[in-house]
C-alpha cells in the first residue's frame, strides 16, 4: 500500500470497474450453465450432482485461501452461484425427458396461492393448463372430465367437498391429486370417489419462496404407480426435494413440524403483544436470536389465520402437543422461580440428548444464518 | 446454445476457469479495499458509508438485470463482498485515529469466551494486553493497579465479588468496565468501589460469531465521559453497532430480548424431547420454519446452562414474563380446542397490530433467510 493512498473516488471507480468484470464473468458462466442443462437433458442426467458440488466448493475454498480471501464468505458466494445455476437448469427443463408427454392439467383453485405455484410448476414443464377457480366460467367438473391430471388445490375446509364434487368426473386413465396440509382424510376421500389413479401431496413451502430449488414436497401414493412416478419425476425436474411416506406417518410428523412450531410462534407473539413493552423499545437491543424470533413471528402473523387455524384444529394430536407445551412452561418456570441451577442444567442435558448428532449441523447452520442476519440488519 | 452441446467435462472445465477469474478479481478488489482503509484512516472517515453501499447495491442490481442474471442472488453476493470489505478495513484499523494512544488493558477473565473476544478486539486496535484468569500467575489486583483500562469479564455469578476485589486497585485516572448481561447491579457495584471512570457494557453476541462487523454492543455510562467516548470509539472502530442507554432501560428490554426468547426456546426444546417422536422421524418432513426452530433450539441447548440460568434467574421481571407466557399458552390452546376460528383470527389481528410496520421488514428478511436455509439444507 502506498504511503499516500489514491483519492477515495478514484479507488471506488476502480472497484466499480472490477465489479462490472465480475458481473460479465457471471453472465458468461450462466451461458455455460445453459449448455450444461442441454447436455443433461440429452443424456438424461440429474441437475443436482453432489460430488461435483462438493468438489467445486472445496476447490474454490482452497483457492480463496491461497489468494488471502476470506474463505467462508467466498464459499457462501459460490453456494449462491450454484443455486442460481441449478434454478437456471430447471427453468431450461434439464431434467425433463426429451420425449416427455405433454398433458392437460386441470388445477381446481388455480388462482389461489398454492394453485398458482402448481400452475407455474406444470407450465414450466410444458403442459397445458386448465385453471378453475371461484371466478372462472370454466367449472371444476367440466375441467376434470377432460384433463389427464386433476389437481385439487383449495382451502383445507372445502377440500373434502371439492374432492367429492370433481372425483366422479375424473377419467379412469387420469390422475386425481391434492396438495392439502393433512393427508389421511383427503386421500381417503379421493380413493372413495374415483377409480382413477390417486396421489396425495403436501408442498412444504409457501407461495412467497423465491425459487422452488430445494423446497420440500411430501408424496403419499394412493392408487396407480405410473402416475405417482410421473408426479415424483415432475417435482424433481423442477428442483423439489421429495419425501415419500404414508398418510398416517405424514400426519403424525406434522403434529410436531407444523402444529408445535406454529403454536409456539403464536404463544410467543401473543406474549410479546401483552407484555406492555412496545416493540420499538426493544429493537435497539436486538440480538441475532431475538431478531430471528421476531422475523419468524411477524411473518407468521402476516399470513392467513384460516390456513393455520385449519392446520392446528384439524390435526388429531393438537391437544397432546399443546398440553405437553403447557407442562413444559410450568416446569421451566418453576425451576427459574426456585433459582435451581442444578435442575436447569439437567434440563439442558436431557434436551441435548434428544438433539444428539443434529446439534453439530445446527451449530454450523445457525452460525451461518446469524451471520446473514447481522450482515443485513 | 448449439444443437449438440459440448461434452459436460469440457463445459465444467470452462466454468472452473471462469471461477478462477472471479477469484482473481475478488483478490484485486480486496487490495483496493486496503487502499480505501488507508485513505479513510488518514482522513478520519468512517468505515461504513450508507449512501455508497446503497448506490453500489442499486447499481449492481441494475447491471445484473441488464445481463439477464438473477438480480436478487447477485445482490446477496455483493452484500457478502461488502461485508468482507468492511471487515478487512476494520482489521487494517481504518477507523483508529492515526494519533490514537496505546493503552495497557487488563482483562479479568481474559481466557474466558467473552474475555478472548475483548482481548482480540483491543489487541487489533494496538493496545497492550494483561490477561488475568484463574490459571494465570498474574493476579487481578496486580493487573488492575497498573492498567489504564480494567475489563471485568467473568461469569455473572461472581461479577459482584470480582468488581469489589479489583475496584479499589483501579487508578483514579483509569477506567473500570464490565461486560455482564445485566447492567443495574454491576454498574452500581463499580460506582461504589472506585472513584475511577466507570462504563458498563453488554456485548449482545457470543464468542462463536465469525466477524464482529455489525454485531451489537450496549453501553451504559457510569462516570467519566472521556473514557466512555473512548470505549464507544474503540467498539465502533472494530465494526460493532452501539446502543447507548441507561441500566434500567437495558435490564427491562432484556426481560423480553433475552428472558422471553430463551425461555420459549427452552420450552420448545423440552416439549420436543417429551413428545415421544424421535427427531429423525420428523427430519424428512422439515419445512424451513421448523428447521429454523430446530437450529435455534439445538444451538441453544449446546451452550452453557450456567450462563442462561443466571440471565433468566437474575432478571427481576422473569416471573412476569413466564406467567404471561403461560397465560398465552392457555388462551391459544383453548381457542384451538374449541375450534373457534373467529377468535383465532382476532388473535392474529391483535398481534399483527403489535408488530405494525416491522412486519414488512420481517417478511423481506425472513424470505431471504428461508432461501439461505433451503439452499444449504
UniProtKB/TrEMBL annotation, chains A, B:
Keywords: Isomerase, Oxidoreductase. The keyword Oxidoreductase applies. Pfam families: CM_2, PDH_C, PDH_N. GO terms for molecular function: chorismate mutase activity; NAD+ binding; prephenate dehydrogenase (NAD+) activity; prephenate dehydrogenase (NADP+) activity. Residues 103-366 form the Prephenate/arogenate dehydrogenase domain. SUPFAM superfamilies: 6-phosphogluconate dehydrogenase C-terminal domain-like, Chorismate mutase II, NAD(P)-binding Rossmann-fold domains. Signal peptide: none annotated. Residues 2-93 form the Chorismate mutase domain. GO terms for biological process: chorismate metabolic process; tyrosine biosynthetic process. Its EC number is 5.4.99.5. It comes from the Bacteria. PROSITE patterns: CHORISMATE_MUT_2, PDH_ADH. InterPro entries: 6-PGluconate_DH-like_C_sf, Chorismate_II_sf, CM_dom_sf, CM_II_prokaryot, NAD(P)-bd_dom_sf, PDH_C, PDH_N, Preph/Arog_dehydrog. PANTHER family: PREPHENATE DEHYDROGENASE, PREPHENATE DEHYDROGENASE [NADP(+)]. This is chorismate mutase. It comes from Gemmatimonas groenlandica. The gene is tyrA.
Amino acid at each position: 500500500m502506498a504511503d499516500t493512498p489514491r483519492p477515495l473516488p478514484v479507488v471506488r471507480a476502480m472497484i466499480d470497474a472490477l465489479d462490472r468484470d465480475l458481473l460479465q464473468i457471471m453472465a458468461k458462466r450462466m451461458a455455460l450453465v445453459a449448455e450444461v442443462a442441454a447436455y443433461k437433458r440429452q443424456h438424461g442426467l440429474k441437475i443436482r450432482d453432489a460430488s461435483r458440488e462438493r468438489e467445486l466448493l472445496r476447490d474454490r475454498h482452497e483457492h480463496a485461501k491461497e489468494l488471502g480471501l476470506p474463505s467462508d464468505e467466498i464459499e457462501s458466494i459460490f453456494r449462491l452461484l450454484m443455486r442460481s445455476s441449478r434454478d437456471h437448469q430447471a427453468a431450461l427443463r434439464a431434467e425433463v425427458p426429451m420425449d416427455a408427454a405433454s398433458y392437460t392439467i386441470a388445477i381446481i383453485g388455480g388462482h389461489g396461492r398454492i394453485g398458482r405455484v402448481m400452475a407455474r410448476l406444470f407450465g414450466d414443464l410444458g403442459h397445458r393448463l386448465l385453471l378453475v377457480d371461484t371466478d372462472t366460467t370454466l367449472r371444476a367438473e367440466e375441467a376434470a372430465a377432460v384433463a389427464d391430471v386433476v389437481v385439487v388445490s383449495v382451502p383445507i375446509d372445502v377440500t373434502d367437498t371439492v374432492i367429492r364434487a370433481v372425483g366422479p368426473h375424473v377419467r379412469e386413465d387420469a390422475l386425481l391429486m391434492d396438495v392439502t396440509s393433512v393427508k389421511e382424510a383427503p386421500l381417503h376421500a379421493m380413493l372413495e370417489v374415483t377409480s382413477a389413479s390417486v396421489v396425495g401431496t403436501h408442498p412444504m413451502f409457501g407461495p412467497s419462496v423465491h425459487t422452488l430449488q430445494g423446497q420440500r414436497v411430501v408424496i403419499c401414493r394412493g392408487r396407480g404407480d405410473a402416475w405417482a412416478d410421473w408426479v415424483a419425476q415432475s417435482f424433481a425436474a423442477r428442483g423439489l426435494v421429495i419425501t415419500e411416506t404414508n398418510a398416517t406417518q405424514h400426519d403424525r410428523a406434522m403434529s410436531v413440524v407444523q402444529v408445535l412450531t406454529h403454536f409456539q410462534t403464536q404463544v410467543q407473539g401473543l406474549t410479546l403483544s401483552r407484555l406492555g413493552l412496545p416493540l420499538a423499545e426493544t429493537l435497539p437491543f436486538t440480538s441475532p436470536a431475538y431478531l430471528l424470533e421476531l422475523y419468524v413471528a411477524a411473518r407468521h402473523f402476516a399470513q392467513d389465520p384460516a390456513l393455520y387455524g385449519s392446520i392446528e384444529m384439524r390435526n388429531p394430536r393438537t391437544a397432546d402437543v399443546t398440553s405437553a407445551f403447557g407442562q413444559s412452561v410450568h416446569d421451566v418456570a418453576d425451576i427459574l422461580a426456585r433459582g435451581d441451577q442444578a435442575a436447569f442444567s439437567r434440563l439442558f442435558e436431557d434436551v441435548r440428548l434428544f438433539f444428539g448428532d443434529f446439534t453439530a449441523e445446527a451449530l454450523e447452520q445457525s452460525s451461518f444464518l446469524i451471520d446473514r442476519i447481522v450482515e443485513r440488519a
